[in-house]
Prior knowledge:
Elements: H1 27-47, E1 72-83, E2 86-100, E3 103-114, E4 132-146, E5 149-162, E6 179-190, E7 193-204, E8 215-224, E9 237-249, E10 253-254, E11 257-258, E12 264-277, E13 280-294, E14 301-312
Antiparallel strand pairs: 1-2, 1-14, 2-3, 3-4, 4-5, 5-6, 6-7, 7-8, 8-9, 9-12, 10-11, 12-13, 13-14
Amino acid sequence: MPEQAFVCLCALPLVRSVEQETNGKDENMLHSHKGRFTVAMAALITAVPLLSGADHGPVFGLATPTNPQGGWSLDLGVNGRGGTGGVASALEAELGYGVTQNIKLTVSGPLVFEPDPYPRSTVTTNTPVSGDFSGLAWWRFQKKDFEGKRFESTAVGGILVPGPQQETGVYRGLNSGVGYLVGAVTGVASRSQYVWVGSSYQRYTESKGDRRPDLLTYTAVYGYRPQSWRTDYPRWDWRIFGEFTGERAGTLQRQMIDLGGTQANQMFLGPSVLGVYRAIGVEAGIQFPVYRDVGPFFPKERYRFAVNFAYFF
């Protein structure tokens, strides 16, 4: 099984603050956001012929693979969420390097198109909360090969730095210190089937009496690669995934006061599909809420989806 790099690209425009969620749509903002998204999509599609490597993995959930030793990966994409507060989206870029076969270092940064008024979420677990910069280390500390299968486990940890973009909704004007992320994932992969389960935790330091909510994320992924889809270059090689994501966001703090009603507990489920062409990976996925318990300060999220491009060099 080759080593993984993937990035999320999620399409939809416009996000409004909580105060605007019941108002009529602003067509000028909508057209402006569509224009920016179209430019980003064109740039990504133009870059695809230059890609030289990619691997398979889920788009929303955690997975175990790392880069090969000395291998670089560059991921580009847009992730987003939609619901009663409009549609939030951001362009994400991630650069990874394989220090060894089992250790990968990554840095990522966003370009926020529209800020996110929904409860805190990573949307895709390979990048942090939308708007954050990150520096992470991935350590595959356990790997065991069986006949036609591989069982492995990977730990992740690193630093999160909030970006300069303006927040919206209940987060408007919120100060935030740096944060950290820790997590782990384990699973089994074969030529035809994949299973991964994992979890991560994010927490931020206090800044001027304010603190972002902490975030616990847990994921489960099942992947299937039908016999008829197992092809090599010059044909595309496809696989499908069923992905579950659970998120528990803690309390938001302002001026040393914990604000009640800012906690959130959500679960999402949905499919994704990945195609591999030589070293190029293109992936798309969508999730819908199956459980939701959020405070009154937040709009309701109705979906999240992604289209992904990734490569190695």
